[in-house]
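worker-3 :: picked histidine kinase
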Amino acid sequence: MRLKLVAVAVAALAPVVAMLAYNEVALRHQRNEEVRASAAQAARQASSEVERIVEGLHGLLVSVAAMPSVRHLDVGTCNEALKSVAESIPNISTIFVVGLDGRPVCGSTAFPEGVRFSDRDYFQQILNSKDFTVGTYTQSRLSDRHVLPLAMPLMEGDILKAVIVSGIRMDWLQNRITERGVAPGNAVTIADGKGTIVARAPLPEQFVGTVIPDEYQHLIHAEQPDVIELTSQDGTTRIVAYRPIALPSSPLFVSAGFSKPEAFAPIERATLMNTLAIIGGALFSLTAAIFIGNRFILVPIWRIADVMEKWRGGQTAARTGMTGSDELEVVGATFDRLLDELEERRRRNEEVEEERILLVRELAHRVKNGFTLVQAIARQTFSRSDPERYNSFAERLAALAGTYDLILSREGSASPVRDVVSAALRAHVASEAEHIRLDGPDVVLPADTALPLSLVIHELATNATKYGSLGSENGTVAIEWRHDDGRVFLLWTESGGPPVSKPTKRGFGSVLIERAFPAKAQARSHSDYRPEGLVFELVFSIGVS
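worker-3 :: C-alpha coordinates ->
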Protein backbone atom coordinates (compact mmCIF):
# COMPACT_ATOMS: atom_id res chain seq x y z
CA MET A 1 0.00 0.00 0.00
CA ARG A 2 2.71 2.43 0.94
CA LEU A 3 4.53 1.53 -2.26
CA LYS A 4 1.51 2.53 -4.32
CA LEU A 5 1.22 5.87 -2.53
CA VAL A 6 4.92 6.51 -2.92
CA ALA A 7 4.63 5.66 -6.61
CA VAL A 8 1.97 8.37 -7.06
CA ALA A 9 4.21 10.94 -5.37
CA VAL A 10 7.20 9.89 -7.42
CA ALA A 11 5.20 10.08 -10.65
CA ALA A 12 4.34 13.69 -9.87
CA LEU A 13 7.97 14.58 -9.23
CA ALA A 14 9.41 12.53 -12.09
CA PRO A 15 9.28 15.23 -14.83
CA VAL A 16 11.04 17.79 -12.62
CA VAL A 17 13.68 15.29 -11.53
CA ALA A 18 14.25 14.18 -15.13
CA MET A 19 14.77 17.77 -16.30
CA LEU A 20 17.20 18.54 -13.49
CA ALA A 21 19.05 15.30 -14.12
CA TYR A 22 19.43 16.13 -17.83
CA ASN A 23 20.77 19.60 -17.02
CA GLU A 24 23.10 18.08 -14.42
CA VAL A 25 24.57 15.63 -16.91
CA ALA A 26 24.97 18.28 -19.59
CA LEU A 27 26.65 20.75 -17.23
CA ARG A 28 29.01 18.11 -15.87
CA HIS A 29 29.99 16.98 -19.34
CA GLN A 30 30.65 20.56 -20.44
CA ARG A 31 32.64 21.33 -17.29
CA ASN A 32 34.63 18.11 -17.69
CA GLU A 33 35.66 19.08 -21.23
CA GLU A 34 36.65 22.56 -20.05
CA VAL A 35 38.81 21.17 -17.24
CA ARG A 36 40.47 18.64 -19.56
CA ALA A 37 41.32 21.43 -22.01
CA SER A 38 42.70 23.62 -19.22
CA ALA A 39 44.79 20.75 -17.84
CA ALA A 40 46.22 20.00 -21.29
CA GLN A 41 47.11 23.68 -21.77
CA ALA A 42 48.80 23.82 -18.34
CA ALA A 43 50.81 20.69 -19.12
CA ARG A 44 51.91 22.12 -22.48
CA GLN A 45 53.05 25.36 -20.84
CA ALA A 46 55.00 23.57 -18.10
CA SER A 47 56.56 21.17 -20.61
CA SER A 48 57.49 24.07 -22.89
CA GLU A 49 59.21 25.88 -20.03
CA VAL A 50 61.18 22.75 -19.10
CA GLU A 51 62.21 22.30 -22.73
CA ARG A 52 63.43 25.93 -22.88
CA ILE A 53 65.50 25.42 -19.72
CA VAL A 54 67.06 22.21 -21.03
CA GLU A 55 67.65 23.70 -24.49
CA GLY A 56 69.32 26.72 -22.92
CA LEU A 57 71.70 24.54 -20.96
CA HIS A 58 72.29 22.45 -24.08
CA GLY A 59 73.40 25.60 -25.82
CA LEU A 60 75.60 26.46 -22.85
CA LEU A 61 77.34 23.06 -23.04
CA VAL A 62 77.82 23.50 -26.79
CA SER A 63 79.49 26.86 -26.11
CA VAL A 64 81.66 25.33 -23.38
CA ALA A 65 82.72 22.56 -25.76
CA ALA A 66 83.92 25.23 -28.18
CA MET A 67 86.16 26.96 -25.61
CA PRO A 68 89.86 26.41 -26.49
CA SER A 69 90.89 25.60 -22.92
CA VAL A 70 88.22 22.93 -22.77
CA ARG A 71 88.91 21.49 -26.20
CA HIS A 72 92.61 21.16 -25.43
CA LEU A 73 91.92 19.98 -21.84
CA ASP A 74 94.25 22.64 -20.45
CA VAL A 75 93.51 21.94 -16.79
CA GLY A 76 94.54 25.26 -15.26
CA THR A 77 92.87 27.48 -17.85
CA CYS A 78 89.91 25.12 -18.09
CA ASN A 79 89.26 25.34 -14.33
CA GLU A 80 89.19 29.12 -14.41
CA ALA A 81 86.97 29.25 -17.48
CA LEU A 82 84.43 26.77 -16.12
CA LYS A 83 84.38 28.46 -12.73
CA SER A 84 83.60 31.78 -14.43
CA VAL A 85 80.77 30.18 -16.42
CA ALA A 86 79.23 28.43 -13.39
CA GLU A 87 79.27 31.59 -11.26
CA SER A 88 77.35 33.52 -13.91
CA ILE A 89 74.53 30.96 -14.31
CA PRO A 90 72.46 30.44 -11.12
CA ASN A 91 70.43 27.46 -12.29
CA ILE A 92 73.37 25.04 -12.54
CA SER A 93 75.24 23.41 -9.70
CA THR A 94 78.63 22.84 -11.29
CA ILE A 95 80.17 22.28 -14.68
CA PHE A 96 83.13 20.00 -15.29
CA VAL A 97 84.88 17.76 -17.81
CA VAL A 98 85.25 14.00 -17.29
CA GLY A 99 87.72 11.76 -19.07
CA LEU A 100 86.69 8.52 -20.72
CA ASP A 101 87.89 6.62 -17.66
CA GLY A 102 85.32 8.47 -15.50
CA ARG A 103 87.90 10.62 -13.69
CA PRO A 104 87.37 14.41 -13.63
CA VAL A 105 89.79 16.47 -15.72
CA CYS A 106 88.81 20.06 -14.87
CA GLY A 107 85.80 21.87 -13.50
CA SER A 108 84.25 24.85 -11.79
CA THR A 109 84.95 23.45 -8.33
CA ALA A 110 87.51 21.30 -6.58
CA PHE A 111 87.09 17.52 -6.83
CA PRO A 112 87.04 15.19 -3.81
CA GLU A 113 89.86 12.70 -3.69
CA GLY A 114 89.20 9.61 -5.78
CA VAL A 115 85.82 10.72 -7.14
CA ARG A 116 84.71 9.02 -10.37
CA PHE A 117 81.66 9.30 -12.61
CA SER A 118 81.91 6.22 -14.84
CA ASP A 119 78.98 4.57 -12.99
CA ARG A 120 76.56 7.41 -13.72
CA ASP A 121 73.82 6.56 -16.23
CA TYR A 122 74.35 9.73 -18.26
CA PHE A 123 78.06 8.88 -18.63
CA GLN A 124 77.26 5.43 -20.00
CA GLN A 125 74.68 6.91 -22.37
CA ILE A 126 77.23 9.38 -23.73
CA LEU A 127 79.68 6.56 -24.40
CA ASN A 128 76.98 4.69 -26.35
CA SER A 129 75.22 7.54 -28.17
CA LYS A 130 77.88 10.31 -28.37
CA ASP A 131 75.01 12.79 -28.15
CA PHE A 132 73.62 15.29 -25.66
CA THR A 133 72.02 13.42 -22.73
CA VAL A 134 69.75 14.32 -19.83
CA GLY A 135 70.31 12.05 -16.82
CA THR A 136 68.07 11.19 -13.88
CA TYR A 137 67.48 12.73 -10.45
CA THR A 138 70.62 12.30 -8.37
CA GLN A 139 72.75 13.86 -5.63
CA SER A 140 75.82 15.64 -6.93
CA ARG A 141 79.14 14.21 -5.77
CA LEU A 142 80.65 17.68 -5.96
CA SER A 143 78.08 19.99 -4.39
CA ASP A 144 75.93 17.48 -2.44
CA ARG A 145 72.86 19.13 -3.97
CA HIS A 146 70.14 17.24 -5.80
CA VAL A 147 70.54 17.87 -9.50
CA LEU A 148 69.31 16.74 -12.88
CA PRO A 149 72.54 15.92 -14.77
CA LEU A 150 73.14 17.06 -18.38
CA ALA A 151 76.05 15.74 -20.38
CA MET A 152 77.62 16.75 -23.71
CA PRO A 153 80.25 14.77 -25.64
CA LEU A 154 83.53 16.55 -26.34
CA MET A 155 84.40 15.35 -29.81
CA GLU A 156 87.54 15.57 -31.87
CA GLY A 157 86.33 14.71 -35.32
CA ASP A 158 84.43 11.44 -34.94
CA ILE A 159 86.34 10.46 -31.82
CA LEU A 160 84.91 10.98 -28.33
CA LYS A 161 87.56 12.81 -26.35
CA ALA A 162 85.82 13.57 -23.03
CA VAL A 163 82.41 14.35 -21.51
CA ILE A 164 81.23 17.79 -20.38
CA VAL A 165 78.82 17.51 -17.44
CA SER A 166 76.57 20.00 -15.69
CA GLY A 167 73.31 19.74 -13.79
CA ILE A 168 70.14 21.72 -13.19
CA ARG A 169 69.77 22.54 -9.53
CA MET A 170 66.57 20.94 -8.29
CA ASP A 171 65.96 23.70 -5.72
CA TRP A 172 66.15 26.27 -8.52
CA LEU A 173 63.76 24.26 -10.72
CA GLN A 174 61.38 23.80 -7.77
CA ASN A 175 61.37 27.56 -7.16
CA ARG A 176 60.46 28.18 -10.80
CA ILE A 177 57.52 25.77 -10.56
CA THR A 178 56.42 27.24 -7.22
CA GLU A 179 56.58 30.80 -8.56
CA ARG A 180 54.17 29.85 -11.32
CA GLY A 181 51.59 29.08 -8.65
CA VAL A 182 48.77 26.56 -8.77
CA ALA A 183 45.12 26.90 -7.81
CA PRO A 184 43.93 25.13 -4.63
CA GLY A 185 43.72 21.40 -5.23
CA ASN A 186 45.69 21.52 -8.50
CA ALA A 187 49.18 20.08 -8.98
CA VAL A 188 52.10 20.19 -11.41
CA THR A 189 54.59 17.31 -11.45
CA ILE A 190 57.91 16.90 -13.29
CA ALA A 191 59.66 13.50 -13.33
CA ASP A 192 62.74 11.97 -14.94
CA GLY A 193 62.98 8.90 -17.16
CA LYS A 194 62.89 6.52 -14.16
CA GLY A 195 59.74 8.09 -12.74
CA THR A 196 61.49 9.96 -9.91
CA ILE A 197 59.71 13.23 -9.16
CA VAL A 198 62.18 16.13 -9.55
CA ALA A 199 59.77 19.02 -8.95
CA ARG A 200 56.22 19.30 -7.70
CA ALA A 201 53.77 21.98 -6.68
CA PRO A 202 52.31 21.90 -4.12
CA LEU A 203 53.92 19.84 -1.30
CA PRO A 204 57.40 19.44 -2.86
CA GLU A 205 58.84 18.33 0.48
CA GLN A 206 56.48 15.35 0.44
CA PHE A 207 56.87 14.20 -3.16
CA VAL A 208 60.24 15.35 -4.61
CA GLY A 209 62.63 12.39 -4.70
CA THR A 210 59.84 9.80 -4.57
CA VAL A 211 58.87 7.57 -7.48
CA ILE A 212 55.61 7.75 -9.43
CA PRO A 213 53.43 4.71 -8.48
CA ASP A 214 53.86 1.61 -10.64
CA GLU A 215 50.32 1.82 -12.03
CA TYR A 216 51.21 5.13 -13.74
CA GLN A 217 54.80 4.35 -14.77
CA HIS A 218 53.68 3.53 -18.31
CA LEU A 219 52.62 7.16 -18.83
CA ILE A 220 56.23 8.38 -18.58
CA HIS A 221 57.19 6.91 -21.96
CA ALA A 222 53.72 6.87 -23.55
CA GLU A 223 53.50 7.34 -27.29
CA GLN A 224 51.56 10.61 -27.09
CA PRO A 225 50.13 13.12 -24.59
CA ASP A 226 46.70 12.47 -23.09
CA VAL A 227 44.29 13.49 -20.33
CA ILE A 228 43.11 10.97 -17.71
CA GLU A 229 41.29 10.96 -14.39
CA LEU A 230 43.04 9.46 -11.36
CA THR A 231 43.51 9.64 -7.61
CA SER A 232 46.82 11.29 -6.77
CA GLN A 233 49.20 10.15 -4.05
CA ASP A 234 47.86 12.90 -1.77
CA GLY A 235 44.37 11.38 -2.04
CA THR A 236 42.88 14.05 -4.34
CA THR A 237 40.86 13.02 -7.40
CA ARG A 238 42.27 14.97 -10.33
CA ILE A 239 41.86 15.35 -14.07
CA VAL A 240 45.49 15.06 -15.19
CA ALA A 241 47.04 16.01 -18.50
CA TYR A 242 50.49 14.57 -19.10
CA ARG A 243 53.29 15.07 -21.58
CA PRO A 244 55.47 11.93 -21.89
CA ILE A 245 59.21 11.91 -22.46
CA ALA A 246 59.93 12.29 -26.18
CA LEU A 247 63.67 12.60 -26.75
CA PRO A 248 65.44 14.76 -27.62
CA SER A 249 63.00 17.68 -27.39
CA SER A 250 61.14 16.59 -24.22
CA PRO A 251 63.60 14.93 -21.82
CA LEU A 252 61.28 15.08 -18.77
CA PHE A 253 57.78 13.86 -17.96
CA VAL A 254 55.37 16.69 -17.12
CA SER A 255 51.82 16.44 -15.77
CA ALA A 256 49.30 19.07 -14.71
CA GLY A 257 46.38 17.95 -12.56
CA PHE A 258 43.20 19.90 -11.82
CA SER A 259 41.32 18.99 -8.66
CA LYS A 260 37.98 17.55 -9.67
CA PRO A 261 36.22 18.54 -6.41
CA GLU A 262 37.42 22.15 -6.83
CA ALA A 263 36.56 22.26 -10.53
CA PHE A 264 33.07 20.90 -9.98
CA ALA A 265 32.37 22.83 -6.76
CA PRO A 266 29.94 25.37 -8.42
CA ILE A 267 28.01 22.56 -10.04
CA GLU A 268 27.94 20.63 -6.79
CA ARG A 269 26.50 23.67 -4.98
CA ALA A 270 23.82 24.11 -7.67
CA THR A 271 23.01 20.42 -7.50
CA LEU A 272 22.71 20.61 -3.72
CA MET A 273 20.28 23.55 -3.91
CA ASN A 274 18.14 21.82 -6.55
CA THR A 275 18.16 18.62 -4.56
CA LEU A 276 17.08 20.41 -1.39
CA ALA A 277 14.25 22.07 -3.29
CA ILE A 278 13.03 18.74 -4.64
CA ILE A 279 13.31 17.14 -1.20
CA GLY A 280 11.36 19.93 0.40
CA GLY A 281 8.56 19.59 -2.16
CA ALA A 282 8.52 15.81 -1.83
CA LEU A 283 8.52 15.57 1.95
CA PHE A 284 4.86 16.39 2.35
CA SER A 285 3.81 13.95 -0.38
CA LEU A 286 5.92 11.16 1.05
CA THR A 287 4.92 11.65 4.68
CA ALA A 288 1.46 10.21 4.15
CA ALA A 289 2.87 7.30 2.16
CA ILE A 290 5.41 6.56 4.89
CA PHE A 291 2.81 6.73 7.65
CA ILE A 292 0.44 4.35 5.86
CA GLY A 293 3.29 2.16 4.66
CA ASN A 294 4.48 1.60 8.24
CA ARG A 295 1.12 0.16 9.14
CA PHE A 296 0.63 -2.14 6.16
CA ILE A 297 4.19 -2.99 5.11
CA LEU A 298 6.86 -2.43 7.73
CA VAL A 299 5.00 -3.90 10.71
CA PRO A 300 4.34 -7.25 8.95
CA ILE A 301 7.95 -7.36 7.70
CA TRP A 302 9.26 -6.69 11.20
CA ARG A 303 7.04 -9.47 12.54
CA ILE A 304 8.43 -11.95 10.01
CA ALA A 305 12.02 -10.79 10.68
CA ASP A 306 11.46 -11.13 14.44
CA VAL A 307 10.30 -14.73 14.03
CA MET A 308 13.37 -15.49 11.90
CA GLU A 309 15.68 -14.07 14.57
CA LYS A 310 13.93 -16.11 17.26
CA TRP A 311 14.45 -19.25 15.15
CA ARG A 312 18.13 -18.39 14.86
CA GLY A 313 18.20 -18.11 18.64
CA GLY A 314 16.69 -21.58 19.09
CA GLN A 315 13.02 -20.67 19.71
CA THR A 316 11.65 -23.11 17.17
CA ALA A 317 8.08 -22.66 18.37
CA ALA A 318 7.95 -18.99 17.26
CA ARG A 319 5.37 -18.17 14.54
CA THR A 320 4.06 -14.97 12.95
CA GLY A 321 0.41 -15.93 13.43
CA MET A 322 -0.43 -13.88 10.33
CA THR A 323 -3.67 -14.53 8.38
CA GLY A 324 -5.57 -12.57 5.77
CA SER A 325 -5.60 -11.76 2.06
CA ASP A 326 -3.00 -8.96 2.05
CA GLU A 327 0.20 -9.89 0.22
CA LEU A 328 2.43 -9.74 3.29
CA GLU A 329 -0.16 -11.55 5.40
CA VAL A 330 -0.08 -14.37 2.83
CA VAL A 331 3.73 -14.39 3.00
CA GLY A 332 3.58 -14.61 6.79
CA ALA A 333 1.12 -17.50 6.73
CA THR A 334 3.24 -19.34 4.13
CA PHE A 335 6.32 -18.74 6.28
CA ASP A 336 4.55 -20.28 9.28
CA ARG A 337 3.70 -23.39 7.27
CA LEU A 338 7.32 -23.63 6.13
CA LEU A 339 8.54 -23.44 9.73
CA ASP A 340 6.07 -26.18 10.69
CA GLU A 341 7.50 -28.42 7.96
CA LEU A 342 11.09 -27.65 8.99
CA GLU A 343 10.32 -28.47 12.62
CA GLU A 344 8.74 -31.78 11.61
CA ARG A 345 11.76 -32.67 9.45
CA ARG A 346 14.13 -31.79 12.26
CA ARG A 347 12.21 -34.06 14.64
CA ARG A 348 12.29 -36.92 12.14
CA ASN A 349 16.03 -36.44 11.52
CA GLU A 350 16.69 -36.65 15.26
CA GLU A 351 14.75 -39.91 15.44
CA VAL A 352 16.66 -41.32 12.46
CA GLU A 353 19.98 -40.27 14.00
CA GLU A 354 19.10 -41.94 17.27
CA GLU A 355 18.23 -45.14 15.39
CA ARG A 356 21.49 -44.97 13.44
CA ILE A 357 23.56 -44.54 16.60
CA LEU A 358 21.75 -47.46 18.19
CA LEU A 359 22.43 -49.66 15.15
CA VAL A 360 26.11 -48.71 15.12
CA ARG A 361 26.44 -49.54 18.79
CA GLU A 362 24.63 -52.84 18.24
CA LEU A 363 26.95 -53.64 15.31
CA ALA A 364 30.01 -52.79 17.40
CA HIS A 365 28.73 -55.00 20.19
CA ARG A 366 28.13 -57.92 17.83
CA VAL A 367 31.59 -57.51 16.25
CA LYS A 368 33.18 -57.57 19.70
CA ASN A 369 31.19 -60.69 20.56
CA GLY A 370 32.33 -62.30 17.30
CA PHE A 371 35.99 -61.65 18.05
CA THR A 372 35.50 -62.92 21.61
CA LEU A 373 33.90 -66.11 20.26
CA VAL A 374 36.78 -66.65 17.80
CA GLN A 375 39.28 -66.15 20.60
CA ALA A 376 37.44 -68.65 22.82
CA ILE A 377 37.38 -71.25 20.03
CA ALA A 378 41.08 -70.74 19.40
CA ARG A 379 41.87 -71.08 23.11
CA GLN A 380 39.92 -74.32 23.38
CA THR A 381 41.50 -75.68 20.18
CA PHE A 382 45.24 -75.14 20.59
CA SER A 383 46.10 -73.03 23.67
CA ARG A 384 47.45 -76.09 25.48
CA SER A 385 49.12 -77.76 22.51
CA ASP A 386 50.97 -74.65 21.33
CA PRO A 387 50.70 -71.83 23.92
CA GLU A 388 53.27 -69.59 22.26
CA ARG A 389 51.52 -69.51 18.88
CA TYR A 390 48.16 -69.16 20.62
CA ASN A 391 49.36 -66.09 22.56
CA SER A 392 50.62 -64.49 19.32
CA PHE A 393 47.32 -65.25 17.61
CA ALA A 394 45.34 -63.85 20.57
CA GLU A 395 47.34 -60.58 20.57
CA ARG A 396 46.79 -60.06 16.86
CA LEU A 397 43.11 -60.89 17.19
CA ALA A 398 42.76 -58.37 20.05
CA ALA A 399 44.50 -55.66 17.97
CA LEU A 400 42.20 -56.39 15.05
CA ALA A 401 39.20 -56.16 17.36
CA GLY A 402 40.45 -52.79 18.65
CA THR A 403 40.83 -51.47 15.11
CA TYR A 404 37.32 -52.52 14.13
CA ASP A 405 35.98 -51.02 17.34
CA LEU A 406 37.59 -47.69 16.44
CA ILE A 407 36.17 -47.87 12.90
CA LEU A 408 32.63 -48.65 14.04
CA SER A 409 32.53 -46.10 16.86
CA ARG A 410 34.24 -43.34 14.79
CA GLU A 411 35.78 -42.08 18.01
CA GLY A 412 39.39 -40.94 18.13
CA SER A 413 41.79 -38.58 19.77
CA ALA A 414 44.98 -36.80 18.86
CA SER A 415 47.78 -39.36 18.55
CA PRO A 416 51.36 -39.53 17.21
CA VAL A 417 51.75 -41.01 13.74
CA ARG A 418 53.94 -43.82 15.12
CA ASP A 419 51.26 -44.88 17.64
CA VAL A 420 48.49 -44.79 15.03
CA VAL A 421 50.49 -46.89 12.57
CA SER A 422 51.67 -49.37 15.21
CA ALA A 423 48.13 -49.87 16.54
CA ALA A 424 46.80 -50.54 13.03
CA LEU A 425 49.57 -53.10 12.33
CA ARG A 426 49.33 -55.18 15.51
CA ALA A 427 46.55 -57.29 14.04
CA HIS A 428 48.69 -58.33 11.06
CA VAL A 429 52.16 -59.19 12.34
CA ALA A 430 53.10 -61.31 15.32
CA SER A 431 56.29 -59.33 15.93
CA GLU A 432 56.49 -55.86 14.51
CA ALA A 433 60.29 -55.76 14.75
CA GLU A 434 60.65 -58.73 12.36
CA HIS A 435 58.57 -57.46 9.45
CA ILE A 436 57.94 -53.75 9.97
CA ARG A 437 60.31 -50.77 9.89
CA LEU A 438 58.95 -47.40 11.07
CA ASP A 439 60.92 -44.21 10.48
CA GLY A 440 59.70 -40.65 10.98
CA PRO A 441 59.51 -37.70 13.38
CA ASP A 442 57.10 -37.33 16.29
CA VAL A 443 54.08 -35.79 14.55
CA VAL A 444 50.81 -35.57 16.51
CA LEU A 445 47.67 -36.01 14.39
CA PRO A 446 44.28 -34.47 15.29
CA ALA A 447 41.36 -36.85 15.77
CA ASP A 448 39.85 -36.17 12.35
CA THR A 449 43.03 -37.40 10.58
CA ALA A 450 44.22 -40.05 13.07
CA LEU A 451 41.18 -42.26 12.40
CA PRO A 452 41.39 -42.04 8.54
CA LEU A 453 45.11 -42.83 8.69
CA SER A 454 44.37 -45.86 10.89
CA LEU A 455 41.80 -47.04 8.30
CA VAL A 456 44.27 -46.63 5.43
CA ILE A 457 47.13 -48.44 7.24
CA HIS A 458 44.76 -51.21 8.28
CA GLU A 459 43.60 -51.67 4.67
CA LEU A 460 47.17 -51.66 3.34
CA ALA A 461 48.24 -54.20 5.98
CA THR A 462 45.24 -56.39 5.17
CA ASN A 463 46.13 -56.39 1.47
CA ALA A 464 49.79 -57.04 2.28
CA THR A 465 48.78 -60.01 4.43
CA LYS A 466 46.55 -61.45 1.73
CA TYR A 467 48.60 -60.69 -1.39
CA GLY A 468 51.88 -59.01 -0.46
CA SER A 469 54.94 -59.07 1.73
CA LEU A 470 53.21 -59.64 5.10
CA GLY A 471 51.90 -62.96 3.78
CA SER A 472 55.47 -64.22 3.40
CA GLU A 473 57.89 -65.25 6.13
CA ASN A 474 60.67 -63.11 4.64
CA GLY A 475 58.49 -60.19 3.62
CA THR A 476 58.96 -56.73 5.13
CA VAL A 477 57.23 -53.36 5.04
CA ALA A 478 59.06 -50.02 5.44
CA ILE A 479 56.84 -47.13 6.56
CA GLU A 480 58.46 -43.68 6.45
CA TRP A 481 56.93 -40.28 7.02
CA ARG A 482 57.97 -36.66 7.29
CA HIS A 483 56.29 -33.38 8.21
CA ASP A 484 56.73 -30.23 6.12
CA ASP A 485 54.76 -26.96 6.31
CA GLY A 486 51.64 -28.47 7.82
CA ARG A 487 51.53 -31.55 5.56
CA VAL A 488 52.45 -35.16 6.28
CA PHE A 489 54.18 -37.22 3.55
CA LEU A 490 53.93 -41.01 4.18
CA LEU A 491 55.60 -43.77 2.11
CA TRP A 492 54.64 -47.49 2.39
CA THR A 493 57.17 -49.82 0.70
CA GLU A 494 56.77 -53.63 0.54
CA SER A 495 59.57 -56.07 -0.27
CA GLY A 496 60.44 -59.77 0.07
CA GLY A 497 56.94 -61.02 -0.77
CA PRO A 498 55.45 -62.74 -3.81
CA PRO A 499 55.47 -60.95 -7.18
CA VAL A 500 52.91 -58.13 -7.33
CA SER A 501 50.71 -57.15 -10.26
CA LYS A 502 48.24 -54.32 -10.67
CA PRO A 503 44.66 -55.43 -9.82
CA THR A 504 42.28 -55.65 -12.76
CA LYS A 505 39.39 -54.00 -10.91
CA ARG A 506 38.90 -51.64 -8.01
CA GLY A 507 37.61 -53.11 -4.78
CA PHE A 508 36.11 -51.46 -1.75
CA GLY A 509 39.54 -51.23 -0.14
CA SER A 510 40.85 -49.02 -2.95
CA VAL A 511 37.84 -46.71 -2.67
CA LEU A 512 38.31 -46.56 1.12
CA ILE A 513 41.96 -45.53 0.75
CA GLU A 514 41.00 -42.72 -1.66
CA ARG A 515 38.07 -41.37 0.37
CA ALA A 516 39.01 -42.00 4.01
CA PHE A 517 40.26 -38.49 4.74
CA PRO A 518 37.97 -35.43 5.09
CA ALA A 519 38.04 -32.80 2.33
CA LYS A 520 39.91 -30.26 4.45
CA ALA A 521 42.86 -32.68 4.70
CA GLN A 522 43.42 -32.33 0.92
CA ALA A 523 44.68 -35.91 0.85
CA ARG A 524 46.34 -37.37 -2.26
CA SER A 525 47.57 -40.93 -2.77
CA HIS A 526 49.36 -42.97 -5.43
CA SER A 527 49.92 -46.73 -5.70
CA ASP A 528 52.84 -48.17 -7.68
CA TYR A 529 52.50 -51.95 -8.18
CA ARG A 530 56.12 -52.93 -8.70
CA PRO A 531 57.00 -56.65 -9.16
CA GLU A 532 59.10 -56.65 -5.99
CA GLY A 533 56.29 -55.12 -3.92
CA LEU A 534 53.72 -52.32 -3.59
CA VAL A 535 54.93 -48.73 -3.11
CA PHE A 536 52.17 -46.49 -1.77
CA GLU A 537 52.50 -42.71 -1.31
CA LEU A 538 50.10 -40.62 0.82
CA VAL A 539 50.06 -36.86 1.44
CA PHE A 540 47.57 -35.09 3.73
CA SER A 541 47.32 -31.81 5.62
CA ILE A 542 47.12 -31.37 9.40
CA GLY A 543 47.40 -27.58 9.48
CA VAL A 544 50.29 -25.07 9.31
CA SER A 545 53.15 -25.88 11.66
